[in-house]
Design goal:
The protein is built from 9 helices and 16 strands.
């Protein structure tokens, strides 16, 4: 154990708010304090892993406030905590405490991603099947047609499934907005590729109730109102997850998925071997 992680017992009791250092010295002298069941000497140091008790009562440090960040990820930064990746998101942000990203945003993409040290909210968000909207602004290499918008919004057969119906809106000749409620691997890029388009720029601008409002490479802390909104959305999603699964099994979309599954596999194979099909450049 590094000496940097050790704290004098009287200082520890003061820092956790139990009593003053002088009062702590008195308690230690009277033998009313134990460390891991043993009565310590004056000047003894403790580590974060030690069990400290006063009069048999376990002393628990106050829970620290969790960190919740909204970060505008630049292109090229990888959403991993692995230090072996030179451009990992954690080293880029260089936050003073340990944090990790919620979900992913592909290396060639930019925009909003959330980071935290709260594992509970990560699990709630990643489990959410409903109300987990993610909004993107996408630029492609060809002029967008009405047929493209209609087919993108109706469902595209990729990865042995059919994407859920989604909101798609044309913004300019080459740019559209799309709101997804699922997170298949490289979903938007694969959907566009299936229709013969290549994504040249992809930016996520919203996750559920959190909007992107900081410059590229910058982050901000989520507000209390945003956190309350996240909790409400993820709570409702978890409650209705079982009902959604049952409904999906009975829906016409499920039958469409079965019908198109074989076709999707054939088309995917054909497009991978077609010289006209732009290759996906994501790593």
């Amino acid at each position: 154990m590094s000496s940097e992680n050790l704290t004098r017992l009287n200082k520890y009791l003061s820092e956790v708010g139990y009593c003053s250092r002088r009062k702590a010295d008195t308690l230690i002298e009277q033998g009313r304090v134990t460390i891991n069941g043993q009565v310590p000497e004056m000047g003894t140091k403790v580590s974060p892993d030690d069990e400290v008790r006063v009069n048999g009562e376990l002393i628990v440090p106050p829970k620290k406030d969790n960190v919740y960040l909204a970060f505008n990820k630049p292109i090229g930064i990888v959403c991993t905590t692995n230090p072996a990746e030179k451009k990992n998101i954690v080293d880029y942000i260089n936050f003073p405490t340990r944090i990790f990203p919620i979900g992913r945003l592909d290396k060639p993409s930019e925009g909003l991603i959330l980071l935290t040290d709260d594992g509970d909210i990560v699990n709630k968000i990643l489990r959410a099947r409903n109300n987990h909207e993610k909004e993107y602004i996408v630029t492609v290499d060809r002029i967008i047609t009405a047929d493209f918008i209609q087919r993108m919004s109706s469902g595209i057969p990729i990865l042995d499934t059919v994407t859920r119906k989604c909101e798609v809106e044309q913004l300019s000749k080459f740019t559209f907005r799309i709101v997804l409620t699922q997170g298949l691997n490289r979903q938007i890029r694969r959907m566009c590729e299936y229709l013969g388009f290549e994504v040249v720029k992809l930016k996520r601008v919203r996750i559920m109730n959190i909007k992107l409002d900081v410059e590229i490479g910058q982050f901000r802390h989520l507000t209390q109102k945003e956190l309350e909104g996240l909790d409400q959305l993820t709570g409702e999603s978890i409650k209705t997850e079982e009902a959604s699964l049952k409904q999906d099994q009975k829906s016409p979309a499920q039958n469409q998925k079965k019908e198109l599954k074989g076709t999707a596999s054939k088309k995917s194979h054909h497009k991978r071997n077609s010289p006209k099909n732009p290759r996906n450049r994501e790593s």
